[in-house]
Amino acid sequence: MPGLPIEVVLFKSENCAGCQAADRIISSKVSELNSSQEAVRLIKYDIDTEEGFKEAEKMGVESTPAVFVSGKRYMGKIGDEFFEFLCKKISEKAKALA
C-alpha cells in the first residue's frame, strides 16, 4: 500500500528491564500487523551506543524506553493499547491516501 509503512522508533538500553519488555511486546505487535504486508517499520536504537545516543539526543529522549510513532512521542501503555493505536494510525493513513 503506497504511503505505508508507519514508522515506529524504540529507544532502549540493554540494562533496562522495562526496555526489554517493551521491545518484546512492540516487536510482537509489529509482526502481527506486518503478517501480510509491511504496514509498520520498526527501528530500534540502543542509547548505550554512539548512534543510539545521538538519535536520542535529536529526539529529546531523556529516559527509556521511549517510543515514537511517525515522529511523535507515544505516551500510552505498551501492549493492547499500543496495538490499537497503531491500527488506528494505519487506518487513518490508508484513508488519507485513498
Automatic annotation (TrEMBL):
Coiled-coil ranges per UniProt: none
InterPro entries: Thioredoxin-like_fold (IPR012336), Thioredoxin-like_sf (IPR036249)
Ranges of residues in domain Thioredoxin-like fold: 6-72
Signal peptide start-end: none
Membership in a protein family: Belongs to the glutaredoxin family.
Protein name from the UniProt record: Thioredoxin-like fold domain-containing protein
Native organism: Methanosuratincola subterraneus
